[in-house]
# Entry
Amino acid sequence: KEAIQAVEESGIVFIDEIDKIVNSGDYKGADASAEGVQRDLLPLIEGSTIQTKYGNVTTDYILFIASGAFHSAKPSDLLAELQGRLPIRVELNALTEADLYRILTEPEASLISQQRALLATEHVSLQFTDDAVKEIARVASLANRTVENIGARRLHTCIERIMDDVSFDACDYPPGSLVTIDKDYVQKKVDDFLVQSDLSKYIL
# Structure
């Protein structure tokens, strides 16, 4: 009962990739039900009572936040009624190199922390120098600018490439070993990645 009350009074619902249910202009995509999905969302956002396995939940005071890339459609292509219920529109800037560095260092479960935890299962300690982390952020930012901007997901690609050999060989290291990833090692691992990224622009 307390949980339902907390949801009704302080709940926040985040609807991601709302642009996927938008038909741009006169074009009707393969999903003919896109407008139907918008109409189904409308009563939820306007405020209604929803049946759940925990009981009825009223959405009148729940905050709804929607986001989308809107590459092939515009927010104005949404149903007029839905636009009216999402009145505040904000355009976000692309992640900068500094933002990517913060993503790698500040969260408790950052990608680097996850890699440390994975190697710890093999009794191997992992250390990234600060210069290495900055280099990863620089490479990810550069790849986003030159190829396709996929945001923080680019960090996954970089970390995977850097950790590929280390993760594979971790079981062969003596217990208690320390592996240090420095800037030179990062550059060696992602150098061909940037070359491939540059070439990918010209491949149809």
